[in-house]
Write a structure and sequence with these properties.
The chain is α+β, with helices and mostly antiparallel strands. It is built from three helices and eleven strands, in the order αααβββββββββββ. The strands form three sheets. Strands 2, 5, 6, 9, 10 and 11 form a six-stranded mixed sheet that branches. Strands 1-3-8 form a three-stranded antiparallel sheet, with no helix packed on it. Strands 4-7 form a two-stranded antiparallel ribbon. The longest helix is centred in the N-terminal third of the chain and has 45 residues.
């Protein structure tokens, strides 16, 4: 084998053997390198991983990336309910009935007034001179105007049968101009003294003392007649 035999010179055969040997050595060397690299790669990767895990000051993955559970996700704002947002409308208050309308200077009609006679005492002796008070009151809900002239005011005395016995304007009539604006509920008083004797309108008949008994007093303001009040002569 060391002495090649052939027709060609020996140098040719030695060169061929050197080329074949170099090729074989290249193949063997390359395969050995690949085997060493394949064996060393996992160890290098493990070493690099261990170095990363044990390297001081390098935060772990869960420290760098926060947990999704710890991240506050803002909730969607609630959609307002139009029905709830609108204020509830208060029911319209029932309109109050219109009250009486006051016209400045309006007249007091008879139905707006009360006319009463109040005696100083419920009874008096025959021949005495008792005092009776005529009271005019505005009973309406508005002020009103009425003439309270002396010639329009009168107090009369009636017997049990309703016969006229005496009148305050029979013998001593008075004349005056007395328009008044009466406030609501206002009362105006006019005292009248009776001479204790009978009379007729115009004072044309003899005057005498009435007999003891039950009588009635009644006031009047022009066309407005008042409520009768009892009176006794003893």
């Amino acid at each position: 084998m060391l002495h090649p035999v052939g027709e060609l010179p020996a140098g040719v055969y030695w060169r061929r053997r050197a080329l074949v040997l170099g090729a074989v050595l290249s193949v063997v060397g390359g395969g050995s390198w690949l085997a060493v690299s394949a064996t060393a790669a996992p160890q290098g990767t493990q070493v690099a991983a261990d170095a990363t895990a044990t390297a001081p000051g390098v935060p772990s993955l869960d420290q760098v990336v926060p947990s999704l559970a710890a991240v506050a996700v803002p909730s969607a704002a609630p959609v307002p309910d139009p029905a709830a947002a609108e204020p509830t409308q208060e029911p319209a208050a029932a309109s109050a009935p219109a009250g009486p309308v006051y016209t400045p200077g309006q007249a007091c009609t008879d139905d707006m007034l009360a006319v009463d006679v109040v005696p100083d005492a419920p009874q008096a002796a025959v021949g005495s001179k008792p005092v009776f008070t005529l009271v005019v009151t505005n009973t309406s809900p508005v002020p009103c105007t009425r003439s309270l002239d002396a010639g329009l005011r009168e107090v009369v005395l009636l017997d049990a049968a309703g016969t006229r016995v005496w009148g305050s304007n029979d013998c001593f009539p008075e004349v005056s101009s007395d328009p008044r604006t009466l406030a609501v509920g206002e009362a105006v008083s006019f005292p009248v003294q009776w001479g204790g004797r009978t009379s007729t309108p115009g004072c044309t008949t003899p005057r005498t003392d009435p007999a003891p008994g039950s009588y009635t007093l009644q006031g009047r303001l022009d066309t407005k007649a008042g409520t009768p009040a009892p009176f006794v002569l003893v």
